[in-house]
Amino acid sequence: MSVIGDRFKLPITLQKGIELTEEATKSNEGLHLLMALNYGGHYDMVQATKSIATKVKDGVLLLEQTDNKLLEQELATKCVKFARPDLLIRTGRTENQ
């Protein structure tokens, strides 16, 4: 199981529960549950862009090395083997933001 999203805005007890669950299931094989909590597509793009910008600023990466593949590697969904899920259940807001 993996959880993506801005965890630091979640209650500390939930953050600790997420960490424990991820640690306990990290060696599991087969199905992979990906939970998106406090997550949005725009949030993910901004975080990925910030990560790439920091790497360029720190000299770890050249600006010319940035491309779609690199952006995909920086997205939160990189934590799963298959970034395109078989099933997506969306609850909460009815609008994508």
TrEMBL record:
One of its GO terms (molecular function) is ditrans,polycis-polyprenyl diphosphate synthase [(2E,6E)-farnesyl diphosphate specific] activity. Keywords: Transferase. GO terms for biological process: plastid membrane organization; polyprenol biosynthetic process; response to cold. Gene3D superfamilies: Decaprenyl diphosphate synthase-like (3.40.1180.10). Pfam families: Prenyltransf (PF01255). InterPro entries: UPP_synth-like (IPR001441), UPP_synth-like_sf (IPR036424). Transmembrane segments: none annotated. One of its GO terms (cellular component) is chloroplast stroma. PANTHER family: (2Z,6Z)-FARNESYL DIPHOSPHATE SYNTHASE CPT6, CHLOROPLASTIC, DEHYDRODOLICHYL DIPHOSPHATE SYNTHASE FAMILY MEMBER. This is Uncharacterized protein. It comes from Capsicum baccatum.
